[in-house]
Prior knowledge:
Blueprint: E1 8-13, H1 18-28, E2 34-40, H2 56-63, E3 75-81, H3 85-95, E4 99-103, H4 120-127, H5 130-147, E5 159-164, H6 170-173, E6 182-186, H7 201-213, E7 221-225, H8 233-239, E8 243-246, H9 248-251, H10 256-265
Parallel strand pairs: 1-2, 1-8, 2-3, 3-4, 4-5, 5-6, 6-7, 7-8
Helix pairs in contact: 2-3, 3-5
Amino acid sequence: MSDTLTPEIVPAIIPVDFYELEDKVAQVAGHVRYVHIDVCDGIFVGNTSWPWLDDKIFSQIITGEMGFPQWEDVDYEVHLMTAHPEKDIFEWIVAGAYRITVQIESFFPHFGKASKGDDTSSLVNANFDERGLARFAAMLERLKTDHGFDPENEDDFYQVGISVTLDTPLEVIKPLVEKFNFVQVMSIPHIGFQGAKFDERAYERIAELREYIATLPNKKEISVDGGINEKNALKLFEAGTDRLVIGSTIFKHDIPSVEIDTLKALFR
């Protein structure tokens, strides 16, 4: 089980435009600490969302002319499902996102593609291609030198996490966990869309990561994202989840804040 007494409930939004984001945030502000924005560029995943569809308002947020909706009441976390997060992440830092998650497969698209006969060590070597490593290393270096990123500083003005899909072997990403503030486990087979069915493989992966993180000198939070509802939320927490990122279950409810309260009540 997670070290936290209860998991953080984080509403997830894939906004078509800024006005959808504004509307949905208004429905949950005051009931949660964080709101999660899924950012899809239509290249890394098949879906396209704001601000890729219209970045005029986002440009104003970056320059400080505008703020995120109800930024006084909620903190924003952003899940970059984009082909080049090493470029996009810095705009979101300047815009004021508190937690930013990069999808590891966007750097190393061949994760898990080695032949079945390969052992773990050869799988790692096969998947960390030189070009991806260069992009990944350059992003981390710029985070440190230009933006003061320190994965051990929990009080920093922003945090960066790493997200992993269901089909990427955990052994491949474990050495990377210490480089980030937290890790996110995707619990649906195809990312970038809401409403997909939860995949039970997530339970074992979360438990394995929790066991691994226990060996590290500093605790790293585990988020889980995809297909979460009232039936599986408690079991995910018991497996070791700290944060539940939930989209359709919350926003398909007539009153999203009521569903948030129902989910929170599961852990009392």
